[in-house]
């Protein structure tokens, strides 16, 4: 495991302690097993995007907010080579925080890539009513939100408010790259 995974594990343990929850209580709230939570907090595993999404929902944070808490404080200008990258190797998801979140701001930009065949399902948004603008830069993406399937190709943009489960499936043989603008309610 890398340094980011170690800091992330430590931050997850800290958040649980701040709420005064046992591993069992957090497991009930998140739907994630106690053993998986324990292993993630000890950085024995690198959490998947789906796992982080569940924890973000419990803690009322976006994934970018959580990941920014384990990185250095964001500067007004973030050079391309300094933009934090997080990877979920299990699902083929790579996420680059173009504009790391700041407590005084509601919006952020994220570049995402999914490998061919990648399929990620989130059972709930990290923050109910989260506004997302998804612009496909290369490839094709299938997004399911509120039981509606949106098939997007290069240049297409989907705007949505996220209240329930969502699914992102790479519909391109070469993978997909997209920009996600996230605005907290």
What does this structure look like?
With 185 residues, this protein is α+β, with helices and mostly antiparallel strands. Helix content is 27%, strand content 33%. It is built from five helices and ten strands; from the N terminus they run H-H-H-H-H-E-E-E-E-E-E-E-E-E-E. The chain has helices at residues 3-19, 23-30, 34-41, 49-59, 63-68, and strands at residues 85-88, 93-97, 107-114, 119-122, 130-138, 140-145, 148-153, 157-162, 166-170, 176-183. The strands form two sheets. The protein has a six-stranded antiparallel β-sheet, with no helix packed on it. Strands 4-9-6-7 form a four-stranded antiparallel β-sheet. A hairpin with a 2-residue loop joins strand 6 (140-145) and strand 7. Helix 1 (3-19) packs across helix 3 (34-41). The protein is globular, with a radius of gyration of 16 Å. The termini are far apart. The mean pLDDT is 90.
What's this, in brief?
With 185 residues, the protein is an alpha+beta fold.
* N-to-C order of helices and strands: HHHHHEEEEEEEEEE
Strand order of the largest sheet: 1-2-3-10-5-8
Number of helices: 5
Radius of gyration (CA) equals: 16 Å
Write the layout of secondary structure elements.
Elements: H1 3-19, H2 23-30, H3 34-41, H4 49-59, H5 63-68, E1 85-88, E2 93-97, E3 107-114, E4 119-122, E5 130-138, E6 140-145, E7 148-153, E8 157-162, E9 166-170, E10 176-183
Antiparallel strand pairs: 1-2, 2-3, 3-10, 4-9, 5-8, 5-10, 6-7, 6-9
């Amino acid at each position: 495991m890398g340094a980011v995974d170690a800091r992330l594990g430590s931050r997850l343990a800290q958040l649980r302690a701040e709420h005064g929850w046992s591993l069992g209580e957090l497991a009930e709230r998140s739907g994630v097993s106690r053993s998986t939570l324990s292993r993630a907090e000890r950085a024995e595993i690198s959490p998947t995007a789906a796992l982080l999404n569940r924890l973000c929902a419990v803690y009322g944070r976006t994934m970018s907010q959580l990941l920014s808490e384990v990185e250095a404080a964001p500067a007004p200008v973030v050079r391309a080579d300094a933009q934090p990258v997080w990877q979920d190797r299990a699902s083929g998801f790579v996420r680059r925080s173009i504009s790391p979140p700041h407590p005084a701001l509601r919006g952020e930009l994220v570049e995402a890539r999914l490998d061919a065949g990648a399929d990620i399902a989130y059972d709930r948004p990290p923050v109910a009513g989260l506004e997302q603008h998804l612009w496909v830069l290369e490839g094709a993406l299938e997004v399911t939100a509120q039981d509606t399937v949106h098939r997007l190709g290069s240049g297409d943009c989907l705007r949505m408010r996220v209240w329930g489960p969502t699914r992102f499936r790479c519909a391109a043989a070469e993978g997909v790259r997209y920009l996600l603008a996230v605005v907290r309610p």
